[in-house]
Amino acid sequence: SVPGTKVELTVSCRNLLDLDTFSKSDPVVVLFVQVSGSTEWKEFGRTEVIDNTLNPDFVRKFVLDYYFEEKQNLRFDVPPGSHSALCGAQDFLGQAFVALGEVIGSQRGRLERPLTGVPGKRCGTILLLAEELSNCRDIVTMQLCANKLDKKDFFGKSDPFLVFYRSNEDGTFTICHKTEVVKNTLNPVWQPFTIPVRALCNGDYDRTVKIDVYDWDRDGSHDFIGEFATSYRELSRAQSQFTVYEVLNPRKKCKKKKYVNSGTVTLLSFSVESEFTFVDYIRGGTQLNFTVAIDFTASNGLPSQPTSLHYASPYQLSAYALALKAVGEIIQDYDSDKLFPAYGFGAKVPPDGKISHQFPLNNNVENPSCAGIEGVLESYLQSLRTVQLYGPTNFAPVINQVAGTAAQVTDGSQYHVLLIITDGVISDMLQTKEAIVTASSLPMSIIIVGVGPAEFEAMEELDGDEVRLSSRGRYAERDIVQFVPFRDYVDDSGNQVLSMARLAKDVLAEIPEQLLSYMKTRDIKPRRADPE
């Protein structure tokens, strides 16, 4: 997600343990953040102390940087407040562990968790509300024209253009937009243009916006025709009426008694659109549906052999299982039912040994969903024991399968992510390209993790970052494939936690943008989170 997505967490507690014999507890909540890729916790901040209550609603909020592609673990501790510091650990009121993505992925960004940590006692609950801080993401489109501007050129009329400035806190001005030059006219009509509200007034609607009118000269010494001032609020009134501004030249005004103005500028149109973010859609109820497809072709090597990519020792998961866990554990926070359809491809499946390119890992054709990432891992290991690794490596069937599901609901309430883990030697490249080009107009993304030592040129082509993917003359409507080679993430130090966090980060980094590009091309706005 875009760096700089800031999320504000509001904290309340309900039914806290009552420890004070004379009055109720005086709670405070302390937030600890887990350092990425380690087991260490750092104190991030604390709320104020609220006296004498078991149901505190804290005013002081926590503002965190949010990254979709990272697991951001939070720990909330509820010590018993300030003056009871002497009482020691037995006065602890409880704690809760939660990932930031879980709060954002919950309905309307609200999550309630039980507090735990005091043996044999019910500690009450903690309520978290996550809201993205609006850094004013509105975008304005406006069009202006002018009448009877002063003539500046000796031989022809003027060549006018406008320069917009926003005012800063200290009274200085910063240029924020220049229109094009309209040649040889005193009554120019400029093209409509678009500018972020932030750029125009830094989110302060009453701040002065200054506009200078110039006559363009080839040598760069543009002549000043005049100026006028307005504000975002004043400009926005033009939605209902034309606003006419007088263009004034202070020097002329001082010199000439009869001076009226140097022409007028009219605001012809003004409209505002919101630039929506990934968080807006998730909060509005868009569900991410996660499907897994695992490569069971013979090129992976016999699962019982240590050289096989499917080999799991008692001490270590296979590359397939590691990649699945790393990506799945983050995605599952955004999937409310936590049920993941999981398939294998490229194996001979019992009882009759038919080759299949989309067999359910849990052996249930009616319902191929597994419960949680743990459920997927279990079914994967079970399948390794029952199917015969074979070939060829066909991606198209499973891509078409997920595309078929994605095509059923295209209103933006469902978005599908297909994770394909493969050793990369693809047999049906033409069909796969065709399948991806078709899928690129649907609410879905495809992540391919390549395991093993192969050269993955074919995967790079599917990724489409360099060259937009095409099939039989049709181009993909949007880039929906992200490919990463697993070997880039296995570090020598053996710190698996960190390298898997990096893998998840790189794999998932493009998903928010891909989801937004789908919503934008379909003009789907996030559903407003209903007020309570």
Short structural description:
This protein has helices at 100-105, 197-201, 232-236, 250-255, 278-283, 319-331, 372-386, 396-406, 429-439, 457-463, 496-508, 511-521; strands at residues 6-14, 30-34, 41-46, 62-65, 73-77, 95-99, 110-114, 125-132, 138-147, 160-167, 173-178, 193-196, 208-215, 223-231, 243-246, 264-274, 287-295, 339-345, 347-349, 354-356, 359-360, 369-371, 388-389, 414-422, 444-450, 470-471, 474-475, 481-485. By secondary structure, the protein is of the alpha+beta class. Residues 83-89 have low confidence and may be disordered.
Write the layout of secondary structure elements.
Layout lengths: L5 E9 L15 E5 L6 E6 L15 E4 L7 E5 L17 E5 H6 L4 E5 L10 E8 L5 E10 L12 E8 L5 E6 L14 E4 H5 L6 E8 L7 E9 H5 L6 E4 L3 H6 L8 E11 L3 H6 L3 E9 L23 H13 L7 E7 L1 E3 L4 E3 L2 E2 L8 E3 H15 L1 E2 L6 H11 L7 E9 L6 H11 L4 E7 L6 H7 L6 E2 L2 E2 L5 E5 L10 H13 L2 H11 L11
Parallel strand pairs: 17-18, 17-24, 24-25, 25-28
Antiparallel strand pairs: 1-4, 1-8, 2-3, 2-5, 5-6, 7-8, 9-12, 9-16, 10-11, 10-13, 13-14, 15-16, 18-21, 18-22, 19-20, 19-23, 26-27
Helix pairs in contact: 6-7, 6-11, 8-9
Q: Overview of this structure, please?
A:
The structure is a single chain. The protein is an alpha+beta fold. The chain has three domains: 5-133, C2 domain (Immunoglobulin-like), CATH 2.60.40.150; 138-274, C2 domain (Immunoglobulin-like), CATH 2.60.40; 286-522, Rossmann fold (3-Layer(aba) Sandwich). It is built from twelve helices and 28 strands. The chain has helices at 100-105, 197-201, 232-236, 250-255, 278-283, 319-331, 372-386, 396-406, 429-439, 457-463, 496-508, 511-521, and strands spanning 6-14, 30-34, 41-46, 62-65, 73-77, 95-99, 110-114, 125-132, 138-147, 160-167, 173-178, 193-196, 208-215, 223-231, 243-246, 264-274, 287-295, 339-345, 347-349, 354-356, 359-360, 369-371, 388-389, 414-422, 444-450, 470-471, 474-475, 481-485. Strands 17, 18, 21, 22, 24, 25 and 28 form a seven-stranded mixed beta sheet that branches. It has a four-stranded antiparallel beta sheet with strand order 4-1-8-7. It has a four-stranded antiparallel beta sheet with strand order 3-2-5-6. A hairpin with a 4-residue loop joins strand 19 and strand 20 (354-356). Helix 6 runs antiparallel to helix 7, helix 6 (319-331) crosses helix 11 (496-508) and helix 8 packs parallel to helix 9. The longest helix has 15 residues, at 372-386. The chain is flat and about 100 Å long. Residues 107-245 form the C2 domain. Keywords: Calcium, Metal-binding, Repeat. InterPro entries: C2_dom (IPR000008), C2_domain_sf (IPR035892), C2B_Copine (IPR037768), Copine (IPR045052), Copine_C (IPR010734), VWF_A (IPR002035), vWFA_dom_sf (IPR036465). Residues 289-490 form the VWFA domain.
